[in-house]
Every structure is written in C-alpha cells, then in structure tokens.
Amino acid sequence: MSQSQITLTPERFAQGMTFEQYLGFIGSPENLRREGSGGAARRDWTAYLRERYQRTRLSEAQVAAMQWLASQPNGPAKILMIAEEWSSDCRRDLPVVPRLAEAGGAELRIFTRDGDRFSASPAPDASAPNADLMTAFLRRRDGQTFQSIPVVAFFSRDFRLLYHYLEFPAVYHKDRIRAHQQAPRAGESAEEAQKRSGAEFTAMLESPMLDVWADAAVAEMISLLYERLVVGSLE
User: Fold this and answer.
1) DSSP letter at 42?
2) What string of pLDDT tens digits covers the 235 residues of the chain?
3) In Å, how far are 135, 181, 189, 200, 209 from 203, measured between CA atoms?
4) 3-class SS at 82?
C-alpha cells in the first residue's frame, strides 16, 4: 500500500482508543450490544486480554530493534490498529502491539472494524464508523477483497505510512490448518465433524501455539519495518 492510498491526519488518528481505553470499551454495554462474529452475541474478553498483556514481554533483541527503528529519520512513531475482540487473530495480537509501541515510544490508537452490525461483506458499509480506515487496508487476493483483521499500520511522525501487517504472520498457515480441522473424518456426520472441529480449534487457541504465533507476528512486524526503512517500499 502506498501513502497515496491513505491520508491519515492527526485529528483522525486521535479519534482511536488507547489500549487501556479499548480494554474499558470491550466490557461496556455499548460494545456488548454490538453484533459479534456471524451475528452472535459478544462476550467480555477484558480479563483475558489484560492477563495476556501483563504476561507479554518482548525479547531484549526485539526491544532494541524497536528502539533503533524509532530513532531513525522517519522511523515508526504512530501505530494504528483495527481490531474486534471476537476475532482470535485480534486476541492473539492485541497484547503484543502495545508492547511494540512501548518499546519504540510510539503512540498507539485502536479502532473497531464494524458498527453495530457484524460485517461479512467484501468491503465495509459506509455506515461503519471506521469504514474509511478499513477500506484503505482491505486484503486483496485473486480479484477479491476481504475485511481481514487485525490491521496494524505503522506511520512516521508526520503520518507517512511505512508498513502494515494484516491478520496473521506468514508462518501461521491458518487456512490449511482450519481446512484440516474442518474436514470430516471417516464415519463422522456433518454435526459431529463441526463439533470436533470447534473443539480442536479451541484447544489450539489455548495451547502454547498462540504465543508462538504472537511472537512470530512481532518478528514479522519488526523485520518488515526494518526492510522498509533500510531498503524501501516494495513498490
């Protein structure tokens, strides 16, 4: 994505929430009455995300790398994140992004993707409060667009877009894993396959793999930020 595709002003950036504000928002009546994934009711993930954040620590190398990046001319100074707490991908990365911001002395603002209704459309509805931001960071693949989250976009102090991360790290082959989990086993009914698949996915999210992939996300963000600053954009 080039800078010409998004113009982010200080005023628009300031409309987002800090991580602490977002934690407070998650359990609020305002948020809980919004539709969750597939139109389901939302649950309060505040305690879960706070606990994950409190035990999340970057390595010495990761902290040093973020400090170096931030010290460079036009280094990352602003981080914009688009997230919804019903998303397991967002819950994985929500605790690590504030740690990246803290390490680099960057300002973080979090925005929701949807309005009151869950959106499964290729692009956001104009009524969504942050449709302008989500539109700028749509995943584009095989002629299609997807509202993939989380989005983590890094900007320089003057709001020049440096790089944005999308949904999950490259080493997490989520589609392949989920396809394997969802494929019916011999003798299973469709209902049994769905129940088993859900249990396997839940067990995976409760396993150490979630932390492995969160760490991979950190490595990917730092590495590609370094590449953008040292080598330049892919465009």
Assistant:
1) P
2) 444 468 899 999 999 999 999 999 999 999 999 999 999 999 999 999 999 999 999 999 999 999 999 999 999 999 999 999 999 999 999 999 999 999 999 999 999 999 999 999 999 988 899 999 999 999 999 999 999 999 999 999 999 999 999 999 999 999 999 999 999 999 999 999 999 999 999 999 999 999 999 999 999 999 999 999 999 875 5
3) 33, 11, 21, 5, 10
4) strand
98-102 CB contacts, 8 Å cutoff, 24+ apart: 98/19, 98/53, 99/53, 99/56, 99/57, 99/58, 99/218, 100/58, 100/66, 100/218, 100/221, 100/222, 101/19
Closest CA to 140 of 124, 123, 125, 128: 123
pTM score, whole prediction: 0.94
